[in-house]
Structure formats: C-alpha cells, structure tokens
Design a protein that fits this description.
The protein is about 25% helix and about 50% strand. The protein is α+β, with helices and mostly antiparallel strands. The two termini are about 20 Å apart.
C-alpha cells in the first residue's frame, strides 16, 4: 500500500484540486520544491473536519515520508485511496 500511496502522491497534479479519499471530498494542495525532490501536500475535507498534511523527501537513500502531527498510517491510507474529483 505504501508504494501505491507514494505513486499517487507523485502523480497528483501540482496546485490546488479537489479529490476523494475514504468516501470524503477534499481540497488538496500540492507544492513541489528542490527540483521535485521535496513535495508538500495539504488536504482539507470539504464540509467536514478531517485534515491531512505531509512532506515527502526524495533522498539519496530513498523516499522519506513525514506526516505532520498524525500517524503515517493515516497518510498512507489517504493517499492510496485518493482520486481526482
């Protein structure tokens, strides 16, 4: 599931778009830095209270996912199910 989640994150369009995950609708903002080696994603549930925030760093030793103050499992599950609206 983690590889699928990372693939979805990399494929997600840059900027702010709407998407669905876990049956919920989100506003999803993705920013890319350092020539694509750093990715920040923030998702806010539309009409709800859920919030997802993470950073991904592509390091020489491999990709490192850093959720912001939430369990990594929550972020991986969200990303694995994320589809464009």
């Amino acid at each position: 599931m983690r590889e699928r989640a990372l693939a979805r994150l990399r494929a997600w369009p840059i900027g702010t778009n709407t998407g669905r995950s876990g049956g919920r609708r989100y506003s999803v903002s993705k920013s890319v830095f350092a020539g694509g080696r750093s990715v920040k994603l923030v998702a806010t549930e539309l009409g709800g209270t859920d919030y997802i925030s993470l950073n991904l760093y592509d390091l020489s030793g491999g990709a490192r996912l850093f959720p912001c103050e939430m369990p990594v499992e929550k972020v991986v599950t969200f990303l694995a199910d994320l589809v464009e609206d």
